[in-house]
Design brief:
The chain has 414 residues and is an alpha+beta fold. It has 15 helices and 18 strands. The radius of gyration is 22 Å and the shape is globular. It starts with a helix and ends with a helix.
Length: 414
């Protein structure tokens, strides 16, 4: 195929051509890959794809998409990395509007200059884009303290499947009105529309940050009383990591590391630290300030380790929730963001086959993601009402089925 001609058919200049091999999903390569340089070019490309009946996948930093299950039909990869402007930043109002291709890392650096932060987490922040984080509704170790992207997005401008530009919400809290379509797009994985830009609520950076790293055994994790004593501390993060997945965090001779994060004013952080150490003992390491931020980043990056991955959630937000996991699959690589009840497993061999039914039926866990989806026979099907609701939403927002990942979005868990 003449890629230059194909991109021209999308209404773009020849220099917008990209190598389709760089945009494979689950081993499936698109026919065309293009990188628009503006919202107008992105809209023109989508209108042209609609005229030609082509199925489109929007791309951000390519952090997670390559490892997803291949879509049934995949014609065009639309690389949105060229849409990377900060449109409007109001430090006094704690709001920011930025285009979808700006990276989380660049936003964090810009906001840190004013003592502010964007409470959206995501793996590989130097590559991960704002649009990708919104599409994935990405969360990390500080999920309970930060919320998810849908809690932070005040409004968005987005492209529908026919190339029409639409908007919902607003730029500040007071003028948010109408249907919250921008919230529906959080977690839609690029299956409903393309987020072009988003307006977001920011927050002041904390006065102090402290990260504490502890060694732990299976017996330590099973001691429920120890962990319940920390429940009232409102920690920023509490993550259990198997040492097989803890590369770069700390070396330890125990099966697990526990990372406790404290953020807030100096006096409160000192009080949190005192209680945590009283419950868990002497830490292996203590990180403060920028080093604590680096520790949070390493915890975020755990999400995108290589290999098949299962992500589950539970309402039992203490480390002893792992007791049954350890009993059925000792030594399985895992990371558990405790306060968010979010567990990531990297099964080896046939470990998932006996473990998954036990977790779903007897352990109270719910699968929220699997990579690739086809790798696991999920034992607990989605409720018919959820599937029907999602199908109806897709019919309303993308009736022409322009976005290739739409079927995947309908079928995934909430």
């Amino acid at each position: 195929m003449d890629l230059t001609a194909a991109v021209a058919n999308l209404g773009l200049d020849a220099d917008r051509t990209r190598d389709p091999a760089s945009f494979a999903i689950g081993g499936r390569t698109p026919r065309i890959a293009a990188r628009p340089a503006s919202r107008e070019e992105a809209a023109e490309a989508l209108r042209a794809a609609a005229r030609e009946g082509l199925r489109v996948v929007p791309w951000g930093g390519g952090v997670a998409l390559p490892f997803e299950s291949a879509p049934e039909h995949y014609d065009v990869a639309l690389d949105l990395g060229g849409l990377d402007r900060v449109v409007e930043y109001e430090p006094d109002d704690l709001t920011l509007t930025a285009e979808c291709g700006v990276t989380l890392g660049s936003l964090r650096a810009k906001l840190a200059e004013r003592g502010q932060e964007l409470p959206i987490e995501g793996a590989r922040a130097t590559r991960a884009t704002l649009g990708g984080a919104i599409a994935a509704n990405a969360v990390g170790p500080r999920r309970r303290a930060f919320g998810a992207p849908r809690d932070r997005v005040l409004g968005a401008r987005y492209l529908l499947g026919d190339g029409t530009t639409a908007r919902s919400g607003g730029k500040v809290v007071k003028n948010v009105a109408g249907y919250g379509v921008h919230r529906l797009l959080c977690g839609s994985r690029g299956g409903l529309a393309i987020v072009l830009e988003a307006s977001l609520k920011l927050q002041p950076a904390p006065e102090q940050r402290v990260g504490l790293v502890f060694a732990a055994t299976e017996r330590d994790l099973a001691d429920g009383a120890r962990w319940r004593s920390l429940a009232r501390l409102e920690l920023a993060a509490l993550t259990v990591v198997s040492t097989t997945t803890a590369s770069g965090i700390h070396a330890a001779g125990t099966p697990f590391l526990v990372v406790a994060g404290c953020e807030g004013d100096t006096a409160w952080v000192a009080e949190q630290e005192r209680h945590v150490c009283a419950a868990l003992g002497l830490p292996l390491a203590k990180r403060t300030g920028a080093e604590a931020v680096e520790l949070w980043t390493k915890l975020e990056d755990l999400e995108e380790q290589s290999g098949e991955r299962l992500t589950l959630v539970t309402a039992d937000c203490t480390p002893d929730a792992l007791e049954r996991v350890n009993a059925f699959a000792p030594g399985i690589p895992l990371a558990f963001h405790v306060l968010a009840g979010r567990l990531m497993l990297w099964p080896r061999g046939g470990e998932a086959e006996p473990l998954l039914p036990m977790l779903l039926h007897d352990g109270g866990w719910v699968v929220v993601d699997a990579r690739p989806t086809s790798a696991f026979g999920l034992a607990k099907p989605k409720p018919p009402a959820v599937l029907a609701m999602r199908a109806a939403l897709r019919e309303a927002i993308d009736p022409t089925r322009r976005f290739a990942l739409g079927e995947d979005w309908v079928e995934r868990s909430l």
